[in-house]
Design brief:
Blueprint lengths: L19 E2 L10 E7 L5 E7 L10 E7 L9 E9 L5 E9 L3 E2 L3 E3 L7 E9 L11 E7 L1
Antiparallel strand pairs: 1-2, 2-3, 4-5, 5-9, 6-7, 6-8, 6-10
Length: 145
């Protein structure tokens, strides 16, 4: 008897998984971070771990304001009610007026717990005793000090 036979066979080398991972990603607002891990055999997975989320810095933001009176006399005080969103840090602010009526309020500390809702606060302003009569236009700006 004579002849030959040919064939092919795929030889698979066993792989022992050895999982390694890259750097952990940024901590997300839900208190988790992820990374991709590989096993050295061609497989990947996503690993998750807990972390402490630190929100990005944000200053307080003035949303609107209103006056507690529509007229005043020189030397008299009035209040400007300010609606604002708090920043992420506890910082000192004052309300600064520019335009026909200038001045600034005392300094106030606005709490820095990151609040997503608006807060109302009143800032006291005194009309200068040397101001002339008439309608005065002004712009109120929340300023960090």
């Amino acid at each position: 008897m004579s002849g030959t036979c040919q064939g092919t066979i795929n030889i698979t080398i066993p792989c022992t998984p050895n999982w390694t991972g890259g750097a952990w990603g940024t901590c997300q607002s839900n208190g988790t971070q992820t990374r991709t891990e590989t096993d050295g055999c061609g497989n990947t997975r996503t690993a998750t771990q807990s972390c402490t989320y630190v929100p990005p810095y944000r200053e307080a933001l003035l949303k609107s304001c209103s006056l507690n009176k529509t007229s005043a006399i020189p030397g008299e005080g009035f209040l400007i009610g300010v609606t604002f969103e708090t920043g992420t840090n506890t910082e000192n602010y004052k309300l600064v007026l520019t335009g026909d009526l200038t001045g600034e309020s005392p300094q106030y500390t606005l709490s820095g717990s990151p609040l997503a809702f608006s807060t109302l606060m009143s800032f006291g302003i005194t009309i200068p005793t040397t101001i002339s009569g008439g309608v005065k236009n002004f712009t109120a700006t929340l300023v960090k000090v």
